[in-house]
């Protein structure tokens, strides 16, 4: 059983929902990423998603785009991030997912990326611009080796596409709660419950809601109708707003803790 599967099994047994916390790796540097990872783990994150910075991302909003630029400016790349995961694995067994554009994976080499990522301790990967229709070769190798390839669904996804993603995803399904790019939104979509239910009816995987979850109340609303939430831009913004490491740790720790408490009460 993979770390991701084990995580959801334990959460289900405890009747709890998952909190996936996203940060951009290397923002502002990799040492900071390792420190923030530890802060989020200690304050209730169940899975941590590390964003791989790229100069021309598909789905990132302005907050995460700015974080990627800061990370790239400091020389962060996919090889260094995989090495960082290996260092984190010396002290943590929390599931780790990489979210990346396909270009860095292609340049790295698909098979080499899967092998090196697994060796370092990566559990899953999300590649928004490598949809299931085009991911055949990569998915086959990743599945053979045991790297969960996680696909996204959106409010506009057809029933046919929902079934395709349900059949090809591993680990969990990432439901994008709004059309467009990542970012902080004022409220969750009104049809969230019906959309998640329609996915869950054909998918034998947890369905997590991401994009636009800005705080505890939104997280609670989303968790009521799903298996958990993914929070990114709100955390990345705290990193940008708090340059001092001590203040940054306090702000992120408090935020993650409050979100975890909120979804724990979602039932």
- Separate helix tally: 12
Q: In CATH, what is the homologous superfamily? A: Aldolase class I
What is the average per-residue confidence, as pLDDT, rounded to a whole number? 93
Radius of gyration, taken over Cα atoms and rounded to an integer in Å:
17 Å
* Total separate domains: 1
> Mind telling me which CATH architecture this is?
Alpha-Beta Barrel
Which stretches are low in confidence, meaning pLDDT under 50 for 5 or more residues running? 180-186
What fraction, in percent, of the residue positions are helical? 40-55%
Percent of sequence in beta strands: 5-15%
Blueprint of the fold:
Elements: H1 3-13, E1 18-24, H2 30-42, E2 47-51, H3 62-73, H4 78-88, E3 96-99, H5 102-108, H6 110-120, E4 124-126, H7 136-145, E5 148-150, E6 152-153, H8 159-168, E7 173-176, H9 192-200, E8 207-210, H10 216-224, E9 228-231, H11 233-241, H12 245-264
Parallel strand pairs: 1-2, 1-9, 2-3, 3-4, 4-5, 6-7, 7-8, 8-9
Helix pairs in contact: 2-12, 4-6, 6-7, 10-12, 11-12
Description:
By secondary structure, this protein is an alpha/beta fold. It has a single domain (3-264), classed as TIM Barrel, CATH 3.20.20. The chain contains 12 helices and 9 strands. It has helices at residues 3-13, 30-42, 62-73, 78-88, 102-108, 110-120, 136-145, 159-168, 192-200, 216-224, 233-241, 245-264; strands at 18-24, 47-51, 96-99, 124-126, 148-150, 152-153, 173-176, 207-210, 228-231. A 9-stranded parallel beta sheet has the order 5-4-3-2-1-9-8-7-6. Helix 7 links the parallel strand 4 (124-126) and strand 5 (148-150). The two termini are 26 Å apart. Residues 180-186 have low confidence and may be disordered.
């Amino acid at each position: 059983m993979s770390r991701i599967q084990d995580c959801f099994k334990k959460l289900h047994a405890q009747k709890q929902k998952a909190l996936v916390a996203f940060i951009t790796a290397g923002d502002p540097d990799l040492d900071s990423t390792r420190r923030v990872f530890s802060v989020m783990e200690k304050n209730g994150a169940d899975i941590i998603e590390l964003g791989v910075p790229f100069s021309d991302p598909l789905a990132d909003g302005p907050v995460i785009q700015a974080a990627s630029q800061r990370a790239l400016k400091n020389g962060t790349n996919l090889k260094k991030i995989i090495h960082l995961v290996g260092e984190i694995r010396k002290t943590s067994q929390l599931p780790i997912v990489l979210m990346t554009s396909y270009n860095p994976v292609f340049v790295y080499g698909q098979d080499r990326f899967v092998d090196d990522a697994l060796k370092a301790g990566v559990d899953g990967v999300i590649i928004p611009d490598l949809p299931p229709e085009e991911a055949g070769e990569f998915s086959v190798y990743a599945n053979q080796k045991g790297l969960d390839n996680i696909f996204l669904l959106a409010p506009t996804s057809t029933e046919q596409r929902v079934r395709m993603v349900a059949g090809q995803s591993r680990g969990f399904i990432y439901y994008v709660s709004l059309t467009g790019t990542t970012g902080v939104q004022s409220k969750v979509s009104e049809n969230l419950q019906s959309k998640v239910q329609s996915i869950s009816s054909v998918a034998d995987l947890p369905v997590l809601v991401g994009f636009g979850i800005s705080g505890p109340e939104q997280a609670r609303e989303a968790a009521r109708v799903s298996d958990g939430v993914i929070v990114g831009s709100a955390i990345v913004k705290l990193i940008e707003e708090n340059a001092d490491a001590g203040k940054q740790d306090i702000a992120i720790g408090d935020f993650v803790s409050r979100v975890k408490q909120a979804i724990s009460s979602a039932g």
